[in-house]
TrEMBL record:
This is Acyl-CoA thioesterase. Belongs to the acyl coenzyme A hydrolase family. InterPro entries: Cytosol_ACT (IPR040170), HOTDOG_ACOT (IPR033120), HotDog_dom_sf (IPR029069), Thioestr_dom (IPR006683). GO terms for molecular function: long-chain fatty acyl-CoA hydrolase activity. It comes from Idiomarina tyrosinivorans.
């Protein structure tokens, strides 16, 4: 798994207890996973179909830098399944994991699923640039 992106936890990202709000991290995961899927498939017309179990392990606090590790798990004819791990950049402690995020490639005009034309083997060969 490659850690490709980072975010700074700001005051507006916190919950009432002063730690990173779970809803904010879910928003970030969906966005980061979309960017990853879009780059892997070289396609913009993707929609989130499914986000499986999310496991929260530790907290993050104001001033922490969190990083997002992403990898393609499964490639379907019209879909791509992704795993994401969010961890603290400094301590490397896992903050949360989402092991089953599914995006579907759609036709921009009909909004119906359409083949993306990629295989797992092709995606595994794509060089991934680190920030």
């Amino acid at each position: 798994m490659r850690f490709l992106s980072r975010r700074l936890v700001m005051p507006n990202d916190l919950n009432f207890a002063g730690s990173l709000f779970g809803g904010r991290i879910l928003e970030w995961i969906d966005e980061e996973a979309y960017i990853f899927a879009s780059c892997q498939l070289e396609a913009k017309s993707l929609v989130t179909k499914h986000i499986g179990e999310i496991s929260f392990e530790t907290s993050a606090f104001q001033g922490d830098v969190v990083e997002f590790g992403l990898e393609a798990k499964k490639v379907g004819r019209t879909s791509l399944s992704i795993a994401c791990v969010v961890r603290n950049k400094q301590t490397k402690q896992t903050i949360c994991e989402a092991d089953d995020i599914v995006f579907v490639h759609i036709d921009p005009e009909t909004r119906q699923p359409t083949p993306h034309g990629k295989t797992k083997e092709q995606l595994d060969k794509i060089p991934i640039e680190a920030p």
